[in-house]
Amino acid sequence: MDHIDTKISKFLSYVLRHQPESIGLTLDSEGWADISTLIKCAVKQGKRLNYPMIEKIVATNDKKRFAISEDRKRIRAVQGHSAKRVNICYQEKIPPAVLYHGTATRFLDSIFKQGLVAGNRHYVHLSADEMTAIKVGQRHGKVAILKIDVQLMYEQGIKFHQAENGVWLTKAVPVEYISMK
Ligand code: HQG
């Protein structure tokens, strides 16, 4: 992604996951926004945005963060939301036996006390491969990789979901399922 695409992707992440009201946009409970309204709201704020630019971002985004509806009229972020009105009905899915979570070493004390919590977002994000977890953790500082005993969690009845872009989601991870990688 070039610099402009990254800027647009960050803007879309912000309004489609966190603060749609900052540009006067409304998301439905599944996180969908009307694309023509999104463009109008963005242009009003002085942003350059049009349908082909949005289509390009959706198609080329490195993490496949966004999806366009079948009728091509709506767009949503596929995961990562904090917006209160959004409550995406993710399908339940049988998870792999182990998943990883990348975090920063300064959070470890708290994590080993409280478990992993979703914080502002709606879910804790887990990944199937360690490389992804390392990248996620590095965003926060000196990286620490946690290994999650997902098989045991699943056997205890804890639900898992997978977003369209492959990110695994669960509401929280209690301490007993977490170990250092
Ligand atoms: C930590 C990016 C203290 C948690 C990524 C994380 C991901 C605790 C931070 C997606 C804690 C929250 C999400 C506890 C959790 N005490 N700290 N009890 N429980 N934490 O950004 O998972 O590029 O909300 O370890 O790739 O880092 O935006 O979550 O370090 O998929 O598309 O609290 O965001 O995707 O940070 O990242 P975040 P995350 P995008």
Automatic annotation (TrEMBL):
Keyword check for NAD, yes or no: yes
Write down the EC number.
2.7.1.-
Q: Which HAMAP family match?
A: KptA
Q: Which Gene3D superfamilies match?
A: 3.20.170.30, RNA 2'-phosphotransferase, Tpt1/KptA family, N-terminal domain (1.10.10.970)
Example GO molecular function: tRNA 2'-phosphotransferase activity
Pfam families with a match to the protein in the record: PTS_2-RNA (PF01885)
Name of the featured protein: Probable RNA 2'-phosphotransferase
NCBIfam families xrefs: PRK00819.1-1, PRK00819.1-4
Q: Which domain of life is it from?
A: Bacteria
Report the family membership.
Belongs to the KptA/TPT1 family.
So what does this one do?
A: Removes the 2'-phosphate from RNA via an intermediate in which the phosphate is ADP-ribosylated by NAD followed by a presumed transesterification to release the RNA and generate ADP-ribose 1''-2''-cyclic phosphate (APPR>P). May function as an ADP-ribosylase.
Enzyme class per UniProt: transferase
Q: Does Acetylation appear among the keywords?
A: no
- Gene expressing this chain: kptA
A Gene Ontology biological process term: tRNA splicing, via endonucleolytic cleavage and ligation
What the entry lists under InterPro entries is as follows: Ptrans_KptA/Tpt1, RNA_2'-PTrans_C, RNA_2'-PTrans_KptA, RNA_2'-PTrans_N
Residues that span the membrane, as ranges: none
Q: Which UniProt keywords apply?
A: NAD, Transferase
